[in-house]
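Hey,

Quick one before I head out. I ran the complex with coenzyme A overnight. Inputs first:
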Amino acid sequence: MPDWPSNLPSLLGHGLQLRPWLNADVESLHLASQNEDIQRWTTVPSPYTLSHAQDFVASRPMALAQRQVAPFAIAHGESDSLLGSCSLMRPDFANRVVEVGYWVAPWARGGGVAVKALTVLCDWAGEIGFERVEAVVLAGNDASAVVAERAGLGFEALLKSRVLLDGKRHDVRLHARVLTEAGGLAGVRSGA
Ligand SMILES: CC(C)(COP(=O)(O)OP(=O)(O)OC[C@H]1O[C@@H](n2cnc3c(N)ncnc32)[C@H](O)[C@@H]1OP(=O)(O)O)[C@@H](O)C(=O)NCCC(=O)NCCS
């Protein structure tokens, strides 16, 4: 059975730190969440207000304690400034399977942050006992599909009409990495 943590650790790797959310992140979280790609491809509220950001940060410890999500802020390894978000979600403890979710703030894109963060997150998922990690990517979100592939989560299937979002049904791509097999790091570039 995976060993779900009661306190989120800080994970270091590839010039990044994945750490618990802090009150100091609220302003950057609010700003990043205005981004049209984050609005379009994730389930963040729209419009996204400052109180959404405050509530999100305040509720993360409870979400962890309820074993719903292990929510990491992606921060710069040296400055600690907020670069994005990545989480383990919907843990299936019996089958040792967990889903990942991620976004990168517009000011931090194009430098490999998502691939590196996802690689660190998948390694940690394996350390705590998960054996398969899945990413569910809306069809058309090509950048996210590339990120998943580069982090070692290969494309497995197109799930027709799998997700209901904003009143419309969407196809999704299922990507996965079996952690008991070799993988990951395929496309990690140097530099943070
Ligand atoms: C998808 C997202 C996380 C990528 O973040 P990032 O840190 O810029 O990603 P990386 O730099 O690690 O890698 C992105 C790769 O995708 C490629 N890419 C970017 N846009 C692309 C597109 N429209 N089509 C194909 N590839 C694309 C980049 O060229 C890069 O590959 P490269 O290393 O060969 O240059 C970011 O754009 C984002 O937050 N999007 C909105 C939220 C979202 O979609 N989250 C995922 C939900 S499943």
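Residues 47 and 80 are 27 Å apart (CA to CA).

Talk tomorrow,
K.
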